[in-house]
Automatic annotation (TrEMBL):
Residues 268-443 form the FtsK domain. This is Helix-turn-helix domain-containing protein. The keyword Membrane applies. Keywords: ATP-binding, Membrane, Nucleotide-binding, Transmembrane, Transmembrane helix. It comes from Microbispora oryzae. The chain crosses the membrane at residues 21-43, 72-91, 103-123, 129-146. The keyword DNA damage does not apply.
Amino acid sequence: MSRHRMRRDARRMRRSGVEPVMVMTDGVQFGPIAIVVIGTWLWRYRSELAPVALASCAEIAAVVLHIAHPTWWAGILAAAAVAAWLVALFGHMVGLTWAPERAYAAALVLLVGGWVAAGTALGPGTPPLPALMIIGGAICAVPWWAHRRRRARVRVERTLAAWPEIAHAVGLAGSRIQSAVVDLWGYRARVALARGQTVEDAMTKLPALESALGTRRGAARIQPIPEKANRLELRVIETDPHADAITWPGPSITSIAEPVELGVFEDGSPVRVSLLRRHALVGGVAGAGKSGGMNVIMGNLSACPDVIVWGIDLKRGMELLPWASCLDRLATTPKEAAALLRDAVTILDGRAEMLAMRGLRVWEPTPDAPALVILVDEYAELVDDAPAAIGAADSIARRGRAPATTLLVATQRPSQKAMGHGAVRSQMDVRIGFRVRERRDTDLILGQGMHKAGWHADRLDAPGKFLLSAPEHDIPRRARAYLLTDQIVQDTTTRHAERRPALDPVSLSALNDATTRTHTVVPASVEPTGRHVRKDAPQKADEALWDVLTAAPDEGATLSDLIAATGMSRPTVYRRLGQLEADGRIHQVSRGRWRARGDDPA
Ligand SMILES: Nc1ncnc2c1ncn2[C@@H]1O[C@H](COP(=O)(O)OP(=O)(O)OP(=O)(O)O)[C@@H](O)[C@H]1O
């Protein structure tokens, strides 16, 4: 039977719903079939076989070079060294984003190049080169075979290679995969629909699609691509992004004008929200992750040279002290908090006046004219301990947006009482709701009627999970905040502390004018701790440091005591302690504790 006729018969059988079966007869030539089968197999396992292919290429190259140009070995070795150096330095440009990946690739280039050079000079069959190739090759292949992202990519490629059959089985015959990207949690594929198919059609096929792709139930999502009615994005989540704590990947922004990345949604997409000229409320029961959420925001804001952050932490600075070196000012007592908020209103007024004079509508933050964000950890404490400050907070909440002087408030349960019966809660543009105990508490944090509308913060089941309500987030989607360990906080503050901006001249002159107008001498205990409002701050801080060290008990003063008493940053306290220790005026009693030497003359 001719091949043409066989194909025609097969087509006819398919049309009639019968799958053709290949029957081997004596006349069939096995050679071409074997080649096709082996070729298909090699192509299918090309990723796993890459080390074998590389070793074969090296072997062939060494044979050819040894015969034709045995003296080239030195040049080959030099080229391999240069190539390895280039891979190590610029590998991230070709997708080797992770440093160990670059190190592996560079080492491999050097080893293979070195082996080819040796093979060129001596001949690839000269011992110990064959043994080196087999044993070294096997060892070098292990990281490649074990690489999680490579395996995931191959698995996805194989799944999507079967798309024509999958599409046929679920009723989307004729659709095509245009591209696919593998990420940490699964993969996304862009699908071009066949003529007449719609995204809505595809959405109704989701359960069938999950079955055909072999995923777990609910793992696949379909999203339309706004520009094209016949395109969609298929998202498959293979690993639940919320199963474990997600380590903070580092700051996602360098300007407050960019949206801050707080964590990831259940589908693995990043949670981004803009904080520019917006007030934010963070709520949830104790242990739900509010401080963790504030840490993510702080980590991002501290990376922005166009925002100054002031902090109020009446829990004796427990939450914000680790960030002290990146905070322009930190209040840990009710009096300091009242002074801080009063100064913030002064700045707000000064900025508003300047905007009005220049006919400008809003304050555009720049490193020379930074936005001012006031972080308040546990607002209810402020209401209880510094009720006089609530008027100032209200004023900032109502008028602070245009002059970029905004509040970021955390509290467990933002009832009217806890919020001081003021305007603060109603003025919050961004609401971040961590787990609450009772249903109605959802409405307290996220807004009236939100629980009914499907925002169930009471059902969040792990610390760090939250719901986000903001102008650009109006549907309830569970998210999980990134987690910053103490070590990450410490590293981040060390990195960012030196790059913090200073208050702008408009704000500074508003503060100076206010001091001159009132003619009041601010008592030391009320004096604000910001580095831009105290000209004699360094001297006073040194005096305070010395006072604490001399008054310290036998077991010494802790680093937190010293930071709290001086308002100095952690690195500055360390520097001062180093100087004093070198001068022989203090000694380290134990790890993290210091005190003045009894015989110090000062
Ligand atoms: N994003 C997160 N991912 C995983 N675990 C988290 C996350 N955030 C917080 N946690 C865990 O929950 C614990 C409590 O978190 P956190 O201190 O932020 O809660 P909180 O709401 O601020 O509590 P409190 O009101 O008592 O200060 C942390 O010690 C941490 O182990």
